[in-house]
RNA sequence: CGGGGCGUAGCUCAGCCCGGCUAGAGCGCCUGGUUUGGGACCAGGAGGUCGCAGGUUCGAAUCCUGUCGCCCCGACCA
C-alpha cells in the first residue's frame, strides 16, 4: 500500500471542515449517534473532557464557588418569565409532553399520560436555578451566592458538527447572586478572566477577552462578555461566555433580599459557561495534518511507551525495562500531578501502533528496543515536532527532564498559536480593504482567507447587519482594556499571558463604513 | 424551514441509465504462517432482509409510487 503523505486526508488546506471531521474520528474522540444531532463521546474524548472539568472545577472552587445540581426539566411557565430569554431559546427547545408509554397497534409504543404543564429540557438553567435562589436568599447575609453546576443541556440545532454544535452537549453553568451591581459586575469579569486563564494556561489557546455587541448578547442579559480564539482556518470561535444579568432574572424569579438598611431589594445575578465545544476549539487550535495535538496539561496520556517487541528472545527484557521506566515516570510530578504514562505493549501492529498515538495527539512518545536498553537510553519523539525528528536520550536524563519537556511543549503550542493569530490579525481603515480581506479569491471553492480585523465602528447595529449580510463577518467582541479586565487572582500560567495590547488599544478614530466618529477599534471575523 | 445529493458487508464505495446465474471490491475483522527500529506480506475464513412499504414483470439492488433516514449548501445558533 502506498503510504500517504499525511495521516489525515484531506489536509487542512485542501478541505478544512472535512479535515476537522477526520481528526475527530482518527483521534477517536467521538462519533455520531443514532439520535440526530447528538454525539457519542468516546473514552479518549471523554478523558479529555474530564481533565478540562477537573482543572476548571479547581479554579471555580478556588474563587469561592460551590457545586450543586438542578433538574433537567424546566416548567414551561418558568421559561416564560423573562421575555427576552424566551424569545432567544423558543426556537430550539425540546419539550416533554407525556409521561407514559402504552402498547399501540402493530406492537408499537405510543406516548400517553399527557402532562398538565409541558416540561422543557433545559437549554440553560437561569430560570430553574433562579427559583431555588429565590428561596435561598432572604437577607443580605445570604449573599453573595456562588453556585456552579456541571450538566448536559439541549438546544435543538438543525445543522450540527461534533463538539462545535450538537443538540445535546455537556457544560458547566455558573450562577451567582449579589447584593450590589458593582459586586455582580466584578464577578462577571472575574469569571471571564478565569476562562481566559484556563484557555491560555491549560489549553495553550490564546484568547481575546471582550464584550459582545447588543446583537450578540445572551437572551436576557444586560452585558455579555466572551473569550474568542482564532482557529487555524482563521475563523473565530467563542470559547466561553460570562453574563452580567442585572436584575432581569432576579425580577423574573423573584430573588429578593433585605438589605442592611432593612429595605427589600432585588438581587443582581450573573451566569457564565463553557462547554464540550472547548474540545473542538482545542482541536482546531493545535492539530495538524497528522491528527490531534494535545497540550500536555490536558492530555489524558502525557507519555506513551512503545516497546519494540519484534524478537522473541528480547521481549521479556524489553517489557521489564519498560515497566520499570513507567514506574519511575509515575513518580515524577508535572504541574502538581503525577505523570500520566501509558505502556502500549500490543504486538504485531508495526508502525500502525505508533501512528495511532500520533493521531490521538499524545505529547511524548518513547520507543524502547534492545538497542536502547544496551545503552540505557530512550528514543524520544515529540508530537509538536515532525514525525521523523526523533532523538535518543539517556534514560536517567529523560526521567529527570520529562516534566520540563512537557512544559516546553505546552509553552511552544501556546506561542505557536499566538504567533499565528498575530500574523492573521490586521488593522483595517478602509471599507474596500475590509471587503477584500474577507473575500476569498476563489468564490466556488473558497480558500482559507481573512482572519481577525481591527476596525473602527461607530456603534450602529445596521452596519453590523450589513457586514453580516455581505461578508458573513461579525463583530466578535469589543476587546477589554486593562482597566475593565477582571482578575482571577489565580496564577497558573505557563508563560506571561494577559490582554494583547494590539486588541486592548482603545483610541478614537473614524468608522470606515459610515464615516462617523468611532470611540475605538473592535474585532471583526468570520465565526463558528 | 428552502435548494441539492445519497441510502448495497463494520467502514468507503462499485453495480442501477440499458431488469437476467449464487450481489462485488478495497479497507477493517477472525484463523494460520512469514516478517519486524516503524502505517508489513501470504493463504484461508466470517460477515449483506441491497433503508422500508407497495406496484409493474416470468424475474427487481436495478423500473414506478409512497415513505423513513442521513449528508451537503443556505437561514438560525455556544
User: Care to count the β-strands?
Assistant: 27
Poorly predicted residue ranges: none
**Average pLDDT metric:** 91
Number of helices in the DSSP assignment? 15
- Give the distance, in angstroms, between the N- and C-terminal Cα atoms: 37 Å
Q: Which helices and strands occur, and which strands form pairs?
A:
Layout: H1 16-26, E1 30-32, E2 39-41, H2 43-62, E3 66-67, E4 73-75, H3 76-79, H4 83-89, E5 95-103, E6 109-121, H5 126-136, E7 145-154, E8 168-178, H6 181-201, E9 208-211, E10 223-230, E11 236-244, H7 248-253, E12 256-258, E13 264-266, E14 268-275, H8 277-286, E15 303-307, H9 312-330, E16 333-334, E17 337-338, E18 341-343, H10 351-360, E19 364-368, H11 370-374, E20 377-382, E21 390-394, H12 395-423, E22 425-427, H13 431-437, E23 452-456, H14 461-471, E24 474-479, H15 501-504, E25 509-510, E26 517-518, E27 521-525
The structure holds one RNA strand of 78 nucleotides.
Amino acid at each position: 500500500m502506498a503510504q500517504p503523505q499525511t495521516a489525515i486526508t484531506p489536509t487542512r488546506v485542501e478541505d478544512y471542515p472535512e479535515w476537522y471531521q477526520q481528526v475527530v474520528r482518527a483521534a477517536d474522540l467521538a462519533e455520531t449517534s443514532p439520535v440526530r444531532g447528538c454525539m457519542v463521546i468516546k473514552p479518549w474524548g471523554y478523558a479529555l473532557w474530564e481533565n478540562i472539568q477537573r482543572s476548571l472545577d479547581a479554579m471555580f472552587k478556588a474563587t469561592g464557588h460551590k457545586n450543586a445540581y438542578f433538574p433537567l426539566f424546566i416548567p414551561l411557565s418558568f421559561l416564560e418569565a423573562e421575555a427576552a430569554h424566551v424569545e432567544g431559546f423558543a426556537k430550539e427547545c425540546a419539550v416533554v409532553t407525556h409521561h407514559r408509554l402504552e402498547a399501540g397497534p402493530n406492537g408499537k409504543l405510543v406516548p400517553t399520560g399527557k402532562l398538565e404543564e409541558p416540561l422543557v429540557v433545559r437549554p440553560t438553567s437561569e430560570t430553574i436555578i433562579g427559583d431555588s435562589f429565590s428561596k435561598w436568599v432572604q437577607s443580605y447575609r445570604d449573599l453573595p451566592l456562588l453556585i456552579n453546576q456541571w450538566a448536559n443541556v439541549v438546544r435543538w440545532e438543525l445543522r450540527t458538527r461534533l463538539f462545535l454544535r450538537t443538540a445535546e452537549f455537556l457544560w458547566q453553568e455558573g450562577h451567582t447572586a449579589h447584593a450590589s451591581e458593582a459586586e455582580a459586575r466584578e464577578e462577571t469579569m472575574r469569571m471571564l478572566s478565569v476562562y481566559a486563564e484556563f484557555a491560555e494556561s491549560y489549553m495553550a489557546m490564546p484568547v481575546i477577552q471582550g464584550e459582545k455587541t447588543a446583537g450578540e448578547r445572551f437572551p436576557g442579559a444586560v452585558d455579555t462578555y466572551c473569550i474568542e480564539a482564532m482557529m487555524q482556518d482563521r475563523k473565530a470561535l467563542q470559547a466561553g461566555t460570562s453574563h452580567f444579568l442585572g436584575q432581569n432574572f432576579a425580577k423574573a424569579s423573584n430573588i429578593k433580599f433585605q438589605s442592611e438598611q432593612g429595605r427589600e431589594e432585588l438581587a443582581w445575578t450573573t451566569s457564565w459557561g463553557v462547554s464540550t465545544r472547548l474540545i473542538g476549539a482545542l482541536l482546531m487550535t493545535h492539530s495538524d495534518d497528522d491528527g490531534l495535538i494535545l497540550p500536555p496539561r490536558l492530555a489524558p496520556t502525557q507519555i506513551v511507551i512503545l516497546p519494540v517487541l519484534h524478537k522473541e528472545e528480547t521481549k521479556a527484557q524489553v517489557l521489564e525495562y519498560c515497566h520499570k521506566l513507567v514506574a519511575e515516570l509515575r513518580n515524577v510530578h508535572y504541574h502538581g500531578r503525577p505523570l500520566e504514562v501509558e505502556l502500549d505493549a500490543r504486538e504485531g501492529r508495526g508502525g500502525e501502533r505508533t501512528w495511532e498515538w500520533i493521531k490521538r495527539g499524545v505529547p511524548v512518545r518513547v520507543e524502547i528496543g534492545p538497542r536502547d536498553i544496551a545503552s540505557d537510553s530512550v528514543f524520544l519523539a515529540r508530537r509538536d515536532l515532525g514525525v521523523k525528528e526523533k532523538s535518543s536520550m539517556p534514560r536517567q536524563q529523560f526521567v529527570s527532564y520529562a516534566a520540563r519537556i512537557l512544559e516546553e511543549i505546552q509553552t511552544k503550542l501556546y506561542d505557536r498559536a499566538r504567533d499565528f493569530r498575530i500574523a492573521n490579525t490586521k488593522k483595517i481603515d478602509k471599507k474596500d480593504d475590509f471587503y477584500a480581506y474577507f473575500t476569498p479569491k476563489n468564490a466556488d471553492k473558497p480558500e482559507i482567507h481573512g482572519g481577525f480585523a481591527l476596525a473602527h465602528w461607530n456603534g450602529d447595529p445596521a452596519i453590523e447587519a450589513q457586514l453580516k449580510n455581505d461578508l458573513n463577518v461579525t463583530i466578535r467582541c469589543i476587546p477589554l482594556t486593562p482597566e475593565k479586565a477582571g482578575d482571577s487572582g489565580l496564577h497558573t500560567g505557563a508563560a506571561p499571558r494577559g490582554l494583547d495590547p494590539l486588541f486592548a488599544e482603545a483610541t478614537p478614530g473614524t468608522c470606515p463604513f459610515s464615516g462617523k466618529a468611532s470611540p475605538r477599534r473592535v474585532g471583526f471575523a468570520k465565526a463558528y
